[in-house]
TrEMBL record:
This is Cation diffusion facilitator family transporter. It comes from Crossiella cryophila. InterPro entries: Cation_efflux, Cation_efflux_TM, Cation_efflux_TMD_sf, SLC30A9. One of its GO terms (biological process) is zinc ion transport. Residues 15-225 form the Cation efflux protein transmembrane domain.
């Protein structure tokens, strides 16, 4: 996982840039929508309003998730980033997708085929595309850089990333560019055919697009909120590191949970060498834990529990969780 030099890091720049761009674009689209009577442009105005509100929620997520751990929250506030990002996904659906669908249905039912000043729509859509591209370039640059740092293709990085803020902005900007193309087609076909049906269809398509983005982001943040396992690459590497320790005979079980962006809680149940004394066991646990945190910066908390490998209750719990005893990772 990519590390950030300060709370928020480059993610804050990405979100702030997206907020400014969407605020400016939203004003332009709203004015153009009123002047032209285009349902697609009004839907895109709603889209930009939703995105602006979303960025505000993401900034809240970045600020609050950086609070240090305390007695009330001993594992820190990292999951606040996931909560506010989930609210951002809800905002995309409620403010963007629903508005776009309602606007499209209204245009279909009203049967009003009037279209005025289509050149205003083309001008605004062109300017919006240029501005949106600025935000998209920043988001995609961050995604590419972090994916490269993890040695993953971009789709795999987006699946495993525990930073929902940059993922949200990247998906938003991608949807925004596609939405602008849909709005352009709706206005153009309306002008060529004289039928507002095309404008309405474009608005409905924008609504469906936003609903899909909201679903993808909501599913990601739900998984992180309820306690998703850490990156499998990290888990396998930690497994090998623990297994290689001279005091450890068998790694019986290993559990992990993402507690925030670049924060992981790791618990390993280990069968230690029976010849170790109590003091030797204590020193081994302290050393192994320190080595793991030094090697893997994402590990925020490490718990090592000595257990017998043949304990039937523990074996049953591992089997119930994995369907088999914890698999030894391929070397």
């Amino acid at each position: 996982m990519a590390q950030e030099s300060e709370p928020g890091g480059e993610s804050t720049l990405t979100v702030v840039l997206a907020l400014i761009v969407n605020f400016l674009i939203g004003i332009m689209k709203a004015v153009a929508g009123v002047l032209t009577g285009s349902a697609a442009l009004l839907a895109e105005a709603g889209h930009s309003v939703a995105d602006t509100f979303t960025e505000g929620l993401l900034l809240t997520a970045l600020r609050r998730s950086g609070k240090p751990a305390d007695a009330r929250h001993p594992f820190g506030y990292g999951k606040e980033r996931f909560f506010w990002s989930l609210m951002a996904a809800v905002a995309i659906f409620a403010s963007g997708a629903v508005f776009a669908v309602v606007e499209g249905v209204h245009t279909l039912i009203s049967g009003d085929d009037a279209q005025t000043r289509p050149w205003v729509a083309y001008l605004v859509l062109g300017l919006a595309f240029l501005l949106e591209s600025v935000s998209f370039v920043q988001a995609s640059r961050q995604v590419r850089r972090e994916a490269k740092a993890e040695g993953r293709p971009i789709p795999a990085y987006l699946r495993h990333s525990d930073d929902p803020t940059v993922k949200t902005v990247f998906f938003e900007d991608t949807a925004a560019l596609i939405g602008l193309v849909l709005a352009f087609l709706g206005v153009l076909l309306h002008q060529l055919t004289g039928s507002a049906v095309w404008d309405a269809v474009a608005s409905l398509a924008i609504g469906v697009l936003l609903a899909g983005v909201a679903y993808l982001l909501g599913r990601t943040n739900l998984g992180l909120l309820i306690g998703r396992q850490a990156d499998p690459v990290l888990v396998r590497a930690a497994y090998r590191r623990i297994e290689a320790q001279p005091e450890v005979e068998v790694v019986v079980d290993i559990l992990s949970m993402v507690t925030g962006t670049d924060r992981v809680l790791l618990c390993a149940r280990l069968d230690f060498d029976d010849n170790l004394g109590a003091a030797d066991l204590e020193r081994a646990c302290v050393r192994i834990s320190a080595e793991l945190r030094a090697e893997f910066a994402e590990l925020d908390e490490v718990f090592l529990e000595p257990v017998p490998r043949a304990d039937p209750e523990l074996r049953a719990r591992v089997l119930a969780r994995y369907g088999e005893l914890f698999p030894r990772p391929e070397r």
